[in-house]
Design brief:
By secondary structure, the chain is α/β, with parallel strands linked by helices. It is built from 16 helices and ten strands. It has two domains: about 190 residues, D-Maltodextrin-Binding Protein, domain 2, CATH 3.40.190.10; about 100 residues, 3-Layer(aba) Sandwich (D-Maltodextrin-Binding Protein, domain 2).
């Protein structure tokens, strides 16, 4: 990157201005993370911009968070979907309570990234892809469980419960112990099935198959297998976990060249509530649908 800057400087002022003025004609390089949700969100962004007449370049599923974030900071890519809660790590603010409230998390990461990096956070989705406790659908329906407060009441009444989770989730002060403290319940060893690793596919499968009597599981809020396996995310009504809302993040100079990006992507992300994003992820991860086709079909529904 430094070599590129030096080369531009050597060209002279008039050439630099011509390069800047040509930016609006350059394709917007759209990227995403390498997981299922990255593919879904990335294709929604890519196709929406393309349908809006903006030239795009496909760099989807580039890598993990650190790789894609660095590519945006260095200008190798122009736009990708990120999660508000990751601002805690981008700005060394992991102990701040702002990340537990959706509006505060978004505003904090928006302001800091604009001031420090000239990156613009656009409209976030309502969906929250954070650590969650989910229960079998039959249990949720029978006992009217929709929040973790409901679960606390169910447990206090002696309800049958066994929870599959990773060792990290069970032991990390920010995970199950934080839920215990906030909601006033405590799961005994007999109520836990601790699985090696942190793969939510394994915990969800244990709940779906009722392995060793399991009827609940550690999940992420937008896991693709939730609806297919009839698992219900219990709302973290007291805001124990940081909020991870996906939102497009774009370089300010690119947004200046294409100001319509915000109005094009806003309605798309506003339509992504928790259930919708779970369904889209599930159609790819469980049902094997092509994320390109899935994105195209979803965008058509927005235009109807």
């Amino acid at each position: 990157m430094k070599a590129v800057i030096k080369s531009i400087a050597a060209l002279g002022v008039s050439t630099v201005f011509s390069l800047g003025s040509a930016q609006a004609d350059s394709p917007v390089v759209v990227s995403s993370k390498i997981d299922t949700e990255g593919a879904v969100l990335g294709h929604l962004i890519l196709q929406r911009l393309e349908d809006g007449g903006i030239p795009v370049e496909d760099r989807l599923q580039l890598g993990g968070t650190s790789i894609v974030r660095e590519a945006l900071l260095t200008g190798e890519i122009d736009l990708y979907p990120e999660y508000t809660g990751n601002g805690a790590f981008f700005f060394d603010m992991a102990d701040s309570p702002v990340w537990n409230k959706a509006d505060e998390a978004y505003e904090t990461v928006r302001q800091r990234d604009l001031e420090q990096n000239r990156l613009v956070w656009l409209t976030p989705a309502e969906a929250n892809n954070t650590w969650a406790m989910s229960v079998r659908g039959d249990l949720a329906r029978e006992h009217d469980l929709s929040t973790l407060e409901d679960l606390a009441d169910y447990l206090e009444e002696g309800g049958e419960f066994k929870f599959a989770a990773s060792a990290e989730f069970v032991e990390s002060p920010q995970a199950l112990p934080a839920f215990h403290k906030a909601y006033g319940f405590s799961l005994s060893d007999d109520q836990l099935l601790v699985l090696s690793g942190g793969n939510t596919a394994a915990t969800m499968r244990a709940a779906a198959q009722q392995t060793s009597g399991v009827n609940a599981a550690m999940t992420y809020g937008t896991d693709g297998g939730l609806q297919a396996l009839d698992l219900v995310v219990l709302e973290d009504s007291l805001g124990v976990q940081p909020v991870y809302q996906p939102a497009p993040v774009v370089r300010e100079s690119v947004l200046d060249a294409h100001p319509e990006i915000g109005s094009l992507l806003g309605p798309v992300f506003k339509a992504l509530d928790l259930e919708t994003l779970q369904r889209l992820n599930g159609d790819v991860a469980v049902n094997g649908l092509d994320p390109r086709r899935l994105a195209a079909d979803f965008l058509e529904t927005l235009d109807d």
